[in-house]
Specification:
Shape of chain B: globular
CATH superfamily of one domain in chain A: P-loop containing nucleotide triphosphate hydrolases
Distance between the termini of chain A: 36 Å
CATH superfamily of chain B: ABC transporter involved in vitamin B12 uptake, BtuC
Order of helices and strands of chain B: HHHHHHHHHHHHH
Number of helices of chain B: 13
CATH topology of chain B: ABC transporter involved in vitamin B12 uptake, BtuC
Strand content of chain A: 25-35%
CATH architecture of one domain in chain A: 3-Layer(aba) Sandwich
Strand order of the largest sheet of chain A: 5-6-7-3-8-9
Oligomer: heterodimer
Largest sheet of chain B: none
Number of strands of chain A: 9
Structural class of chain B: mainly alpha
Order of helices and strands of chain A: EEEHEEHHHHEHEHEEHH
Number of helices of chain A: 9
Number of strands of chain B: 0
């Protein structure tokens, strides 16, 4: 199996506090990897390091040649975004921004790609609707379609189900799982939802500043870490 | 009506007022949309106070007002936008510190130079009829740059405004666009200050954007509507001012637009 993303001994400080210490792991082609951990465990920071938004003080990220510039990202939503006056089509189309180079406008192929992704996620009917008028679940679908415009190989999702109701959460997981297994998309997802992570992922990475566990859900369940973290999460739900 | 207009145009100072006013309203509206959407509205307000301080100091030192104000406000814009991004200092309190300090410096400088309340009044509430040819040239260049930017980089501007982390992940130079926004906003504030004054310039930046957001459902719609509302408010405000202060009348027209748009927006959403 090809390793698409390789993180080597990554250490990062966020404003003087240690966010990540000596984190090493690989993301394999076609897998569904879920990163779990408590708040402040460095999950979002790790995602930003992989994307090159954050530069690590130590260590490096190696990307396979097939994924450079082809990683789709679904960031955590900001409050300003939720009531942003933009049409759904405008938002999805902006996923192509990395591929435009110095050319100021979107090409016909890029527009077709945006429409294709909207079709894939079942939001074509919403194209002209305003983003701020959508429900939380619909907004995440729009952002997922946008991420797909940028993604040829890998999708990085940072807590995509935060603030969604259980039914919509389940639908979103199913959609992401479908993208992984039917469309060959490699998925790296940050999540708090341990039950869903156990159900859908191929591997789980438990992060607490450093890597505490990396392996299959079945293995994770047997570790004391997985058992305690899982039960705590369920109590919260 | 026509006679009234042609008479207005026969005066050079009125022609200048119209040209600079229309162009600056346009720029303020376009840039204002970006500031409002990114929750940076108060930066415009902070910058206008810095502009007032700079103009007063320039006057006290008998230096050329624009030569002092433009660079000072640009530096302040970089600082404020940078502060708003960092998590270490809360952006809103930083703006409050900078703007009231600048205002205080301005008032003291004015007193030291033996200036009267009338001089202060001109800075605070604008003197649209005292514009000079250099203001006309500066505003023409400014508006050409802003319009070209919006036409050529529309997609990038949208991506950065809507979601800076995503744009960064796609390789867009977000920092560069922030710097450019700070630079253009700074120039708009300084030129605009002379029309409506430093107390009122932030309304020129914020009101049209807010009004447009009440109605328009797409980013393109907000940009276009904001520009139209701003120019119309300026023209109506100037024509209606007669013996009243022009700057304040323009702001009141903007307020009226905002109220009308809010009502229309409510009706559309309910209907």
């Amino acid at each position: 199996m090809t390793d698409l993303i390789t993180c080597n001994h990554i250490t990062v400080h966020n404003e003087r506090t240690l966010a990540l210490r000596d984190v090493s792991f690989t993301v394999r082609k076609g897998e569904f990897l879920t990163i779990v951990g408590e708040n402040g465990a460095g999950k979002s920071t790790l995602v930003k390091v992989i994307l090159g938004i954050h530069t690590p003080e130590e260590g490096s990220v190696e990307l396979d040649r097939s994924v450079i510039g082809k990683i789709g990202y679904l960031p955590q939503q900001s409050s300003a975004q939720r009531d942003f006056p933009a049409s759904v089509y405008e938002v999805v189309l902006s996923g192509n921004i990395g591929a435009t180079g110095i050319f100021p406008f979107y090409s016909r192929a890029q527009k077709a790609r945006a429409k294709g992704n909207m079709e894939l996620l079942g939001i074509t009917a919403l194209a002209k609707k305003s983003y701020r008028a959508l429900s939380g679940g619909q907004q995440q679908r729009v952002l997922l379609a946008r991420a797909l415009c940028a993604a040829d190989a890998v999708l990085l999702l940072d807590e995509p189900t935060a603030g969604l109701d259980p039914l919509v959460t389940k639908e979103l997981y199913a959609t992401v799982h479908h993208l992984c297994k039917e469309h060959g998309m490699t998925i790296v997802m940050v999540s708090h939802d341990i039950a869903a992570a156990m159900k859908y992922s191929d591997r789980i990475l438990h992060l607490a500043t450093s890597v505490r566990f990396l392996g299959t859900p079945a293995e994770y369940e047997k570790t004391p870490l997985g058992a305690s973290f899982g039960s705590e999460e369920n109590e919260n739900v | 009506m026509f006679e009234y207009l042609s008479e207005m145009f026969s005066y050079t100072f009125l022609r200048y007022a119209l040209i600079v006013g229309v162009l600056v309203s346009l720029c303020a509206a376009l840039l204002g949309v970006l500031l409002v959407l990114r929750r940076f509205s108060m930066i415009g307000d902070g910058l206008s106070h810095v502009g007032f301080g700079a103009l007063s100091v320039a006057y006290a030192l008998s230096a050329a007002p624009m030569a002092v104000a433009v660079p000072v406000v640009i530096v302040a814009a970089f600082l404020l936008l940078g502060l708003s991004e960092s998590k270490k200092i809360k952006g809103d309190s930083a703006i409050a510190v900078v703007s009231s300090s600048a205002l205080a410096i301005g008032v003291v400088a004015n007193a030291l130079a033996g200036g009267s309340a009338t001089d202060l009044n001109g800075y605070l509430f604008g003197s649209i009829l005292a514009l000079e040819k250099s203001d006309v040239i500066l505003s023409v260049i400014l508006s050409l740059v802003v319009i070209a930017l919006f036409v050529l980089f529309k997609n990038r501007i949208f991506a950065v405004t809507f979601d800076a982390p995503f744009a960064k992940s796609a390789g867009v130079h977000v920092r560069f666009y922030n710097m450019l926004l700070a630079l253009l906003i700074a120039i708009t504030v300084v030129v605009g200050m002379q029309i409506v004054g430093s107390m009122l310039i932030s309304s020129l930046i914020i009101f049209p954007a807010l009004a447009a957001m009440q109605i328009a459902e797409s980013f393109r719609g907000v940009i276009l509507l904001s520009a139209i509302l701003s120019v119309v408010s300026f023209l109506v405000g100037l024509l209606c001012s007669l013996t009243l202060p022009a700057g304040a009348m323009i702001v009141l027209c903007n307020l009226a637009m905002l109220l009308i748009c809010t009502v229309i927006g409510k009706c559309i959403r309910r209907g």
